[in-house]
Amino acid sequence: MQPFYLLYGEESFLVERALRIVQQRCAAEPRPGVWRTIWAPEDASRLGAALDDLASPLLFGGGTTLVVRHVEALAEAAQEDILARLDGVGGGSRLVLVGAAVDARRRLVTACQRAGAAYAFPPLTDAAAVRRWVTQLARDRGH
Fold this sequence. Notes:
The chain is α/β, with parallel strands linked by helices. The chain contains five helices and five strands. A five-stranded parallel β-sheet has the order 2-3-4-1-5, sandwiched between helices.
């Protein structure tokens, strides 16, 4: 798995589904580690310590997965802090950034896009695409 992801878009149910898939893949690893969520901007004061934890290995193995929700609401300084630490994420740890309408001009977003770690979920306006999604979601639930 990649060490970091950016999941964003206006279709929140698709973003949430992608986040669940990442969580399932992390849980399926031999040593799943810890899953931690920070909500921006409410938890912005805890962000630095949470990012530090990504670089620290866990006592019994596995990695830490840090999910930063509402990443678009973070101040520029906090986004720059995340950007500065992207290269250090790894060794079993992961950073998952989740947002609705992220600004594609911000350096954090462009860095994730360049790394192939940005996944956009634009609004579904095509009736055929909506039909395919409804069918897939119904099958996922056994219908």
